[in-house]
């Protein structure tokens, strides 16, 4: 399959498709090709403006000065989502617990 050589999104998507299809060798090959070509994925980023000040957050970031409060709030929101019946669709996602938790935090960023 021909991909745009310097666009990480296509490579990551293809690697994830291979991984979800239990084709680990092909997924690893795509990731190795990315590394060989110097193509890397930028981490997800969210930001919020509060009282004129912007706060940036990277995926699984713990560098913010109020990190403990932020993650505590996210844990509370996660619990509320589950009580309300939210069920994440993991059909096309990796099945690891870490990935599951990160997906929940990303979902909360969208709400």
Automatic annotation (TrEMBL):
A Pfam family assignment: E_motif
Molecular function GO labels: RNA binding
Top-rank taxon: Eukaryota
GO BP annotations listed: RNA modification
InterPro entries xrefs: E_motif, PPR_At4g14850-like_plant
Xref: PANTHER family: PENTATRICOPEPTIDE REPEAT-CONTAINING PROTEIN
Protein name from the UniProt record: Pentatricopeptide repeat-containing protein
Organism: Papaver atlanticum
